[in-house]
Amino acid sequence: MSFRKDNKDYEAWLAKQCDVVKKDIAYKHHRMKKSAFIFLRATYFRWARKIGDWCPQLMDAPQLLSIGDLHLENFGTWRDADGRLVWGVNDFDEAAVMPYVLDLVRLVTSIQLAPHPAVDPRHAASAVLKGYREGLENPQPALLFEGETWLRSYAEPAEGKPEKFWKDVEDYKEYAPPPRIAKALIKSLPHGTDKKTIRLCRLLYKGGGSLGRPRYAAIGYWRGGQVLREAKALVPSAWNWANDPRKYRKSNFLELANSRYRAPDPFLDARHQFVFRRIAADSQKIELGADAGKKMHLNLLQAMGFDVASVHAAGSVPIKALQADLGKRPRGWLNDAAEVAADRVKRDYREWRN
Hints:
Helix 5 runs antiparallel to helix 6 (121-137), helix 5 crosses helix 14 (333-353) and helix 6 crosses helix 12. Strand 7 (215-222) and strand 8 (225-233) form a beta hairpin. This protein is an alpha+beta fold and 354 residues long. The protein has a five-stranded antiparallel β-sheet with strand order 6-7-8-10-9, with helices on one face. A three-stranded antiparallel β-sheet has the order 2-3-5. The protein has a two-stranded antiparallel ribbon with strand order 1-4. It starts with a helix and ends with a helix. It has one domain (3-353). It has 14 helices and ten strands.
């Protein structure tokens, strides 16, 4: 089946799950022509449908609740219940039960598709796998002012970024969300937020896969500064759309976001088929942009693998079973599978671009 046919079918299904924003869908289609890396981010539904055909040798791996849409830019920062700055995977929209190795392969595929890579693909795959093995041995969150202080240079906002963040917030266009979403957004602001200052807005999601889903924000003034809460439509995982239509209704977002070895975001919640969260200059997804490849370093990729393992380690499959499965796989398996997947993604990208 051609990519265009799958894209059409998925968007028709998505329109039955939420009130899609057609203008954002058009923008997504435009962005998908920019690079194979951006295309991968925007088309998890195609990956979910085809990865078993592309890499059938992966499908016998133990199945557990996995991230699904994992890639280089699915990492960010947040504050936990004790106010600590945490780094790690911060988007579980596509979480579903699948062979656990697919998370690793998709991450390494995104590394291979990143523009201007600074790391040899085989070394990159080895770093991710090394971090993953270490994460299974000692799963834990990455705290940026304690054990993983070296990550701060990647995760903390660069000079001028916080100012730009709030300047962008000033430019958000006012918009009236559905009444119950508006009410929930306002309620999620800190107690005592000046009601006269609250603005409700519609946001354009800057990533790829979520473009087209409604996304709103409430901005208010509280004790000397602005505060912001976001609500983004939550739909069933595209993995279920592609592989098991009977599971359309269930979302696993919070189960993974709050799993055992994470320091969860206390502001993160899911209700009314929307995800609600605090957004700030130090609590948001880290977009690597056009320099994604240049910003890759082996220790960063190793940290990514470690964090993925900390998510998987809390799942239904015993850690020893995951370690045993890794031990059975041939040398170079992760890089080899990612090479095949990257080649197939490039074929789909060329079909779309042309």
